[in-house]
């Protein structure tokens, strides 16, 4: 019996983590905590979260950079490096839709996560809004009925220039303070859902 107990003790000793390994495990858990939070935010919201993606990825990249010098265990360092490489590979060239979603979200419209892209995306957004505005204007034009082919041609092809409110709307939007970073379970969500913001304040 004593021999069996001794053997079991040796097996248990092999399975148990020593002090250094326990500290390494704790360090790993701490390293991964922000990623668990990000996952919870992305999948816990009740509205589309595309606008969160780029700001969140940038925040995680900055976190990995800052935490590197604080890690003491080689294995945890390697995990950090692998995560950093994986993010860089996946998000090396973000699609324009992600930037558009972020700039249209009142919580991220100031582009603090990518200030170098702000003017470019703002210009692209203006172009897209003007194109939509012009299409709506064309669809609203009445069809002119005339027995004269010449009159019919000029009436249908010549379009009176319409003053677009896009510039005014964009200026109003970007002049407003950036919305606070609330969660979907925050009472603010009831009145400041980023999807409903444009329905309330849009002028076009």
UniProtKB/TrEMBL annotation:
<dbReference type="InterPro" id="IPR025525">
    <property type="entry name" value="hAT-like_transposase_RNase-H"/>
</dbReference>
<protein>
    <submittedName>
        <fullName>25401_t:CDS:1</fullName>
    </submittedName>
</protein>
<dbReference type="Pfam" id="PF14372">
    <property type="entry name" value="hAT-like_RNase-H"/>
</dbReference>
<dbReference type="InterPro" id="IPR012337">
    <property type="entry name" value="RNaseH-like_sf"/>
</dbReference>
<feature type="domain" description="hAT-like transposase RNase-H fold">
    <location>
        <begin position="44"/>
        <end position="126"/>
    </location>
</feature>
<dbReference type="GO" id="GO:0003677">
    <property type="term" value="F:DNA binding"/>
</dbReference>
